[in-house]
Amino acid sequence: QPKRKAAFGSVGRRIPYRILHVINQDGESLGNMHRAEALRLMDEHGLKLVLLRENVEPPVYRLMTGQQIHEEQLKRAEKKKASPKPGVVQKELSFSSAIAKNDLEIKTKQIAQWIEKKHHVKVTIRQAK
């Protein structure tokens, strides 16, 4: 069983699989090929092989430049930051723009209580008909 890669990045020359599905740097599929053929392509074009999905048969690798790898790492970090963290409660409140004054005051008090409890609050305001 190959070790799981914790971070996204170049795998270099250590590829535990014999047959790979390779995608070129433009996103076009090059099909299934032997590990040696993929390494030869990597060397010819001066690119790096990066594991995209290993849970499929055969595992999917992509030829990328260093710049593409860096951009992908930034995208994944941003996505991870955007997703709610475990243990943090997110509360969502939705109301119409034609809400009565008293209802609005009650909901703002509720939001203030949630914020005091360190909950993340998402407020959605729908346009009245």
From TrEMBL:
InterPro entries: T_IF-3_C_sf, T_IF-3_N_sf, Translation_initiation_fac_3, Translation_initiation_fac_3_N. One of its GO terms (cellular component) is mitochondrion. GO terms for molecular function: ribosome binding; translation initiation factor activity. Keywords: Initiation factor, Protein biosynthesis. Residues 11-78 form the Translation initiation factor 3 N-terminal domain. One of its GO terms (biological process) is mitochondrial translational initiation. It holds the Pfam family IF3_N. It comes from the Eukaryota. PANTHER family: TRANSLATION INITIATION FACTOR IF-3, TRANSLATION INITIATION FACTOR IF-3, MITOCHONDRIAL. NCBIfam families: infC. Belongs to the IF-3 family. This is IF3M factor. It comes from Machaerirhynchus nigripectus.
